[in-house]
Design a protein that fits this description.
Rossmann fold, SDR_fam, single chain, oxidoreductase, globular, about 250 residues, seven-stranded parallel β-sheet, NADP-dependent 3-hydroxy acid dehydrogenase YdfG, oxidoreductase activity, acting on the CH-OH group of donors, NAD or NADP as acceptor, binds NADPH dihydro-nicotinamide-adenine-dinucleotide phosphate
Amino acid sequence: SYDNLAGRTAIVTGAASGMGAATARLLAAHGARVALLARRTDRLDDLAAKITADGGQALAVTTDVTAPASVRAAAARVRETFGGADLVVNAAGVMLPNPVAAGRSDEWARMIDTNLSGALHVIDAFRADLAAAGAAHRPADLVNISSIGAHLSFPDYAVYGATKAALTHLSEILRTEFGPLGVRVTNIEPGLTGTELGDHIDNVSLAAQLDGMHAAIPALTSEDVADLIAFTVTRPARVNLRQLIVLPTAQS
Ligand code: NDP
């Protein structure tokens, strides 16, 4: 069980849907105060209302992780409402596959700015909070959601895969900086998961290919990934699960 989440303050980016929303719900159900960060205010408000109705504590903070000022404002708002954060989950992400030869520099920028730079802006805005928790010998966690795409040579996913490989490597090296401060860094690499991630694909055949994968194998659910995150952050403070790869059983 996850009974030592009470009293913790969690930041979850990408909380408007999918893994971020499921993670926020699960952490809140076990007593954590959760700040919900994403761009769609209506989604965040709905989720905050659900969590509150279930007896939890949630704060919706409309945030664009690609904009450092937006992330800094969110951090200030969380601090004044809940105090410092001791658990940060970077789940915000976008996946926009296309051949590199399509020259979609607009998509490259969105993926790099969200999946890599966005995570960095969030880390920067909350690192002092995490370090303060670590220094006080309280559990402190940074969880980054990368992807099995960091390792696969999936055709037409070159830029997405590159942002995820960068996030995986960032997590690994950042751990050597944060670990001595008492802050655990965990990188999670899920495989196919049923979420809204594919809804933004504008390449018709690649959207159909992803639909075909979902039709062929039972994907993970957002709740499966949330469960792993809750498990990871409730281990004794000396235990750092550094890297988790989780795939649907039928995904090769
Ligand atoms: P979703 O699309 O459901 O969730 C992504 C979330 O990111 C949304 O809530 C979205 O909310 C938010 N987001 C996107 N851009 C921004 C931004 N600029 N600022 C703030 N929030 C933003 O998909 P998933 O739950 O699947 O994605 C979660 C993570 O898991 C992503 O990093 C994804 O790459 C990764 N992943 C997903 C897999 C899958 O098969 N689904 C497999 C492996 C990894 P809003 O639009 O309101 O901002």
